[in-house]
Amino acid sequence: MMKSAQAPAAAPAPYSLAASLVLSCRLSPEQEAVLEASFQRAKNVDPVEMELLAAEMGVPEGDVQTWFTARLSAWRKEQGLGANLNGLV
Questions:
Q1: DSSP letter at 84?
Q2: Phi and psi of 15, rounded to 5°?
Q3: Which fold has domain 27-78?
Q4: Is Nucleus tagged as a keyword (predicted)?
Q5: Contact criterion met (CB below 8 Å) for 24 and 70
Q6: Hey, CA dihedral for 56, 13, 18, 23, is it positive or negative?
Q7: How many CA atoms lie within 13 A of 50 on its CB side?
Q8: Per-residue pLDDT, 85
Q9: Residue 53: its pLDDT value, please?
Q10: Are 53 and 39 in contact (CB under 8 A)?
Q11: Comparing C-alpha atoms, which of 29, 17, 89, 31 is closest to residue 63?
């Protein structure tokens, strides 16, 4: 079976820090700003707050959760902290 030739993939567009961590979450700059502001207030957002943020921005709750997970991971790395293993390390 022969594979069809495909054009090479285009280089990804530049994204902000959070969006580059989670390419599957395509958020507008305004949406990212809302999430970043919320992250600066509290690193760990409770499920109710996450649901409200998603509803206000009109995005799936899973995208908000994924964004926060990736952003927290990046923040921990910036701070020189290890992986978030629920305090087991």
A1: -
A2: -125, 165
A3: Arc Repressor Mutant, subunit A (1.10.10)
A4: yes
A5: no
A6: positive
A7: 15
A8: 58
A9: 94
A10: no
A11: 31
DSSP string of 29-58, one letter each residue: HHHHHHHHHHHHH-SS--HHHHHHHHHHHT
Dist CA 32 CA 7 (whole Å)? 31
- Tell me the C-alpha distance between 83 and 58, whole Å: 30
Residue type, 55: A
Give residue for tokens 């970043």. Answer: 36
Average pLDDT over residues 14-21: 49
Q: Looking at residue 12, what is its pLDDT?
A: 39
| Domain chopping of the chain, boundaries | 27-78
Q: Once rounded to an integer, what is the mean pLDDT over residues 16-38?
A: 73
